[in-house]
Automatic annotation (TrEMBL):
Record has Transferase as a keyword: yes
Record-given protein name: Glutathione S-transferase
Domain Thioredoxin-like fold per the UniProt entry, residue ranges: 18-114
Keyword Oxidoreductase: no
Name of one Pfam family that matches: GST_N_4
Signal sequence segment: none
All residue ranges annotated as the Metaxin glutathione S-transferase domain in the record: 164-225
Gene Ontology molecular function: transferase activity
Naturally occurring in which organism (per UniProt): Bradyrhizobium macuxiense
InterPro entries per UniProt: FAX/IsoI-like, Glutathione-S-Trfase_C_sf, Glutathione_S-Trfase, Metaxin_GST, Mito_Protein_Transport_Metaxin, Thioredoxin-like_fold, Thioredoxin-like_sf
UniProt KW keywords: Transferase
Length: 242
């Protein structure tokens, strides 16, 4: 059986990390049995989550895990997309992971109120004399990566403006369809769902969330995906919450 290593539930989500969510949803899409264990990034070969263990083989990074599933188990996440649609799905996935995701990071880690409410608790189990320093160092490192991503170089309102343009693109692509690329889910839906749910969770307050909630088709999409892939999770429908 495949073992998926992730953070686990938190922040009002069935899985804290959008990348772990992506892999977990793709495992569900492929109909593969798996078990899930909690881990921290240093345990991964690439220093990040998720990673999986499968028959003695360890695969890290959600994109390479997807490739492993496709290669070993013969599951095509993008069936029945045309070659052009596959290229478009890949482009949207890159936009989500290299732009939208960093907006989520800014709202969750750089904003002091949200950091103290959420990520700061990752260090609750640290020794008393080290805890505050570990929290400070972690927030600084993430803020530095946010700066390097490009979004962090802009004023807070400007980075949200840029992120909303990407969410607008996703909203237009989704339209009134059930899924991003049509009537059936594809691999990129797992990516989009993980990032959008991370932004829209009611656990955090942010200008990014407030503006993202205005895309009614995206909030309805997250609600549908949550019901489909995490039916056991207590998720208040976003449109009702808004």
């Amino acid at each position: 059986m495949i073992t998926l290593f992730g953070f686990g539930t938190g922040f009002g989500l069935p899985e804290i990390s959008p990348f772990v969510t992506k892999t977990e949803v793709q495992l569900k899409m492929a109909g593969l049995d798996y078990r899930k264990e909690k881990a921290m990034p240093p345990a991964s070969p690439k220093g990040q989550l998720p990673f999986i263990a499968d028959d003695g083989e360890t695969i890290a990074d959600s994109t390479f895990i997807r490739a492993h599933i496709e290669g070993k188990y013969g599951f095509d996440f993008d069936a029945p997309l045309s070659l052009q649609a596959r290229a478009q799905a890949w482009a949207f996935e890159r936009m989500i992971e290299h732009h939208v995701y960093w907006a989520l990071v800014g709202a969750r880690w750089v904003d002091d109120a949200n950091f103290n409410k959420g990520p700061a608790h990752f260090f609750d189990g640290a020794p008393d004399h080290m805890r505050d320093k570990m929290r400070e160092d972690a927030q600084f490192r993430v803020a530095e990566n946010y700066l390097l991503s490009g979004l962090g170089r802009h004023a807070p309102d400007e980075d949200v403006d840029l992120a909303i343009r990407s969410l607008f693109a996703l909203s237009v692509q989704l339209g009134d369809k059930a899924y991003l690329m049509g009537d059936t889910p594809c691999g990129t839906d797992a990516t989009a769902f993980g990032a959008l749910a991370g932004i829209l969770t009611p656990f955090f307050e942010s200008p990014l969330r407030e503006r993202a909630e205005k895309f009614e088709n995206l909030t309805a999409y997250v609600d549908r995906m949550m019901l489909q892939y995490y039916p056991e999770f207590a998720w208040a429908p976003l449109q009702q919450a808004a």
